[in-house]
Amino acid sequence: MxxxxxxxxxxxxxxxxxxxxxxxxxxxxxLPKFSGGSHVVVSMNINGRTHRNPxxxxxxxxxxxxxxxxxxxxxNSRGGSVxxxxxxxxxxxxxxxxxxxxxxxxxxxxKHILVAGGIGITPFxxxxxxxxxxxxxxxxxYAYRSAEHAAFRQELEALCGDRVHFYVEDDGSxxxxxxxxxxxPLGTHAYVCGPEPMVKLMLLTAKHLGWPSNHxxxxxxxxxxxGDEFTVILTESEKEIVVPGDMSMxxxxxxxxxxxxxxxxxxxxxxxxxxxxxxxxALLHHxxxxxxxxxxxxxxxxxxxxxxxxxxxVVNL
Length: 317
Hints:
It contains seven helices and 19 strands. By secondary structure, it is of the alpha/beta class. The protein has three domains: 3-101, Beta Barrel (Elongation Factor Tu (Ef-tu), domain 3), CATH 2.40.30.10; 111-219, 3-Layer(aba) Sandwich (Rossmann fold); 230-316, Ubiquitin-like (UB roll) (Roll). 38% of the residues are buried. GO terms for molecular function: 2 iron, 2 sulfur cluster binding; metal ion binding; oxidoreductase activity. Keywords: 2Fe-2S, Flavoprotein, Iron, Iron-sulfur, Metal-binding, Oxidoreductase. Pfam families: DmmA-like_N, FAD_binding_6, Fer2. This is Ferredoxin-NADP reductase. InterPro entries: 2Fe-2S_ferredoxin-like_sf (IPR036010), 2Fe-2S_ferredoxin-type (IPR001041), Beta-grasp_dom_sf (IPR012675), Cbr1-like_FAD-bd_dom (IPR008333), DmmA-like_N (IPR054582), FAD-bd_FR_type (IPR017927), FNR_nucleotide-bd (IPR039261), MRET (IPR050415).
């Protein structure tokens, strides 16, 4: 996959746990164009291993002199966010993928309802810039834990004016999805990005209220979880690759020299999907792409985030 060589131009501490990073292209040229909702995958060398994490672009698509992402520090993660917070400074050189949009605004929508929870606000920052430029009708509903976690509140007030609504968990404020989704005009599209319970609740509410499935959009990147070691066997090359407990199946294959496909690396797009030939254990699905029926069938797996509780897993690659 083609990559861009970038330099970190600026790092801002937004809250106690959120930093914003500004990237410029190393050669001084403008960066590739993108649309609101796009993400890039950032490569990081952590203790001799390459980690690749997806992050939404939050800067305005109208300005390609730089890209901006925001990273929430997760101390119990595998280290990507900690690396970004502790090791990445102005002047740091990184490689990123070209932007990909799996969470685009549907421009045929008569109105757009944007729902964000916590750091899930980031893809909406670039979407709002697009919506403002188009003069589109939209509302933003942004929920966060406490005033200390209100990342970008002042910027959102300036961008959205009276179209933004804030919900503070510590104050007992909650989004009433039933009320919100019941009072929208025909042709409205709804978008949600945030913690899994919030995403699931909105999707279920929309389904219950009869919203067309193609009018409801969600994005949620999963981090590869830590698990037990197992061996993955590739049918075409007959390679046997040990997947350590602290490495995803996709990362283990890449480290072994396998040119495995990927796009989001967060269990959202299905680009890395592999056919399962056999296993002597159970598949542990952590993606948001496969249906419940596909997960139960057990003949597909997304190696970017899912793994297996077994000794050997045979896949068609």
